[in-house]
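Summary of Year 1 activities. Much of the first year was spent building the evaluation harness for sequence design. The harness presents a backbone, in tokenized form, and records the residue chosen at every position. We chose the following record to illustrate the format because it has been used consistently in internal testing since the harness was completed.
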């Protein structure tokens, strides 16, 4: 049961391309809150948020060199929930979609609800949404599988190579703590390339993709054979898109079975 008349939490996304992808409902939550916390990647978004809600507080200082990212997320959650418990309407703004690769956003909502406070997450524009548009990928055409790259490797995730494949955070393979710089472990790309080439072949090309931080920028779309992935330049913003292999043959008997269940015309 929610604590009526007490504090509340709304978690919103600012999109990937500065304030251009901020939704109207996210903007409303930012403008109407008592306290605003944020984690964004670009200066334009930070300036917009600071002006929209004077006294807005960045949570970026919860990160520290050598500090576990999970410890940083836990610290963020506590900082966000403190004013909620004090009776304030709190908004947490995270870049991209607030529920995609956003542990702090999900955990803050979960904890707030568990303690009886109203908590909502509003959808935003994610890097996947930008990728679909920039690369012309329709996830419904062949199916789409999405994995965090380290998890994909160390858990030997099963995947269908005739579907679209997205691998996130390829610039941080195997790294659990926070580090300065744009690429935390590019040397591990060879391991990823070898794993993918075993299924797709070394000549099969993937796409190194990065969405621009500003609306006037150009998306990065660099094709690279999987066998040469070890030499690719990647950052923390890089996503690897692997196009599908040729489609599987259609199961005519199963299709006929499905069609036989369609009601006739009235």
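For this record, the design step produced the sequence shown next.
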């Amino acid at each position: 049961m929610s604590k009526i008349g007490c504090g509340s939490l709304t978690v919103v996304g600012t999109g990937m391309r500065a304030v251009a992808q901020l939704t109207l409902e996210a903007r409303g939550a930012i403008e109407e809150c008592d306290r605003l916390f944020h984690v964004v990647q670009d200066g334009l978004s930070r300036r917009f948020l600071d002006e929209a809600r004077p006294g807005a507080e960045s949570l970026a200082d919860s990160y520290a060199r050598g500090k576990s990212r999970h410890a940083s997320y836990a610290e963020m959650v506590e900082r966000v929930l403190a004013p909620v418990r004090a009776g304030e309407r709190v908004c947490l703004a995270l870049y991209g979609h607030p529920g995609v690769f956003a542990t702090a956003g999900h955990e803050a909502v979960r904890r707030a609800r568990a303690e009886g406070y109203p908590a909502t997450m509003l959808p935003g524009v994610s890097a996947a949404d930008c990728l679909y548009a920039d690369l012309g990928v329709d996830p419904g055409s062949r199916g789409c599988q999405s994995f965090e790259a380290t998890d994909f490797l160390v858990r030997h995730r099963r995947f269908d190579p005739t579907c679209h494949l997205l691998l996130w955070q390829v610039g941080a393979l195997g790294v659990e703590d926070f580090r300065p710089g744009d690429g935390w472990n590019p040397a591990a790309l060879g391991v990823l390339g070898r794993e993918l080439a075993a299924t797709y072949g070394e000549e099969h090309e993937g796409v190194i993709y990065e969405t621009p931080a500003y609306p006037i920028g150009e998306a990065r779309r660099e094709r690279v054979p999987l066998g040469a992935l070890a030499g690719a330049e990647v950052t923390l913003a890089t996503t690897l898109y692997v196009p599908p292999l040729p489609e599987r043959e259609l199961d005519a008997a199963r299709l006929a079975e499905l069609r036989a269940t369609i009601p006739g015309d009235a």
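The first strand starts at residue 8 and ends at 13. Quantitative recovery figures across the full test set are reported in Table 2.
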